[in-house]
Q: What sequence folds into this?
């Protein structure tokens, strides 16, 4: 009976994943055309000029084609691979983004099952990610029909889970108390991840960087959870590799070592000290990232909007000046454009809550 219940739950979550993926196909079919994109054609031209996919290794030791002092070699390689596969067919590039987004959903479902042991939390997290990615606008929280399919998916799964729980002997009162807890934890953990709406983004490259950074960051946390459960070093090595790929895809992933350290400190079976010792590899990746950036960009100043600085220090110090506010922005407080500081829930604190939920579950 337990095995049958597990099969039913996996079948229900697979249905949720499929339903949550469907709205994104509209963006694949009729998304932003290439002629309105300012950045991606420049990057594709740079890829062509350096030998396409076979020459894409050069971007690991050079500034990317936009010349804006952003170290994103993994992103450029992914576009070089797209160039080889899709050529000039624009929907193909958006299809790759759609696949990456759904891989994040799949990882999120697994992660929520590992953290909460609740299929409802997994379904809700998947639907929340999908609703934001396919139809979420930061200007409005309503008026978008893309919410319909993910919410229907959650409603169906909630009914499915409720029927199974009642057959298992749980009372209606227990279900009423459990549902908000697991849904709340899913909502908190899902906010860890960078998302970009495929329907409103102005460039493919902006979407690709966030999707790759999100995918590898999510994979890092999932691998750390597996490592904590099984205590096999290979999963820790894979988590460190995922951390490195995230940083090489998206600058905002510089906070990944701190987030990973919090997870390890809280869920390591031998206690926080053992978890922090295990996180040394993540911090080694951060040090290597800084050194590589310094070697690639040398002493030249940045002009990119968030990396623009008012000093003429060496690249290492410019990077610190860029990374420090970003790290604070994603951990303790948010720096408002008006210049004042406000306490804000950010990924590091959400990691504490998520990992604590795992420990207490």
A:
């Amino acid at each position: 009976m337990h095995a049958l219940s597990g099969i039913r739950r996996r079948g229900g979550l697979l249905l949720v994943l499929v339903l949550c993926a469907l709205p994104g196909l509209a963006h694949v079919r009729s998304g932003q055309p290439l002629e309105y994109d300012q950045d991606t054609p420049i990057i594709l031209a740079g890829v062509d000029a350096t030998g396409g996919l076979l020459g894409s290794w050069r971007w690991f030791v050079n500034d990317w084609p936009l010349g804006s002092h952003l170290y994103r070699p993994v992103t450029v390689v992914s576009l070089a691979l797209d160039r080889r596969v899709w050529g000039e067919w624009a929907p193909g590039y958006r299809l790759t983004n759609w696949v990456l987004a759904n891989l994040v959903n799949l990882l999120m479902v697994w992660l929520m099952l590992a953290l909460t042991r609740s299929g409802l939390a997994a379904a809700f997290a998947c639907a929340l990610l999908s609703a934001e990615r396919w139809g979420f606008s930061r200007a409005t929280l309503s008026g978008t029909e893309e919410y319909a399919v993910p919410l229907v998916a959650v409603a169906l799964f909630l009914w499915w889970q409720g029927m199974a729980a009642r057959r298992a002997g749980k009372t209606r009162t227990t279900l009423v108390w459990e549902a908000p807890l697991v849904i709340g934890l899913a909502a908190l953990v899902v906010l860890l991840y960078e998302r970009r709406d495929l329907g409103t983004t102005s460039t493919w490259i902006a979407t690709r960087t966030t999707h790759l950074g999100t995918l590898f960051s999510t994979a890092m946390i999932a691998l750390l959870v597996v490592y904590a459960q099984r205590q096999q070093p290979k999963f820790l090595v894979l988590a460190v590799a995922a951390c490195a790929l995230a940083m090489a895809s998206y600058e905002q992933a510089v906070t990944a070592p701190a987030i990973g350290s919090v997870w390890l400190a809280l869920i390591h079976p031998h206690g926080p000290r053992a978890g922090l010792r295990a996180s040394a590899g993540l911090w080694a990746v951060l040090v290597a990232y800084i050194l590589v950036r310094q070697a690639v960009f040398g002493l030249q100043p940045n002009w990119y909007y968030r990396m623009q600085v008012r000093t003429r220090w060496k690249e290492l110090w410019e990077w610190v000046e860029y990374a420090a506010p970003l790290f604070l922005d994603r951990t303790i407080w948010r720096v408002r454009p008006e210049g004042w500081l406000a306490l804000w829930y950010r990924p590091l604190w959400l990691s504490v809550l998520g990992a604590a939920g795992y420990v207490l579950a």
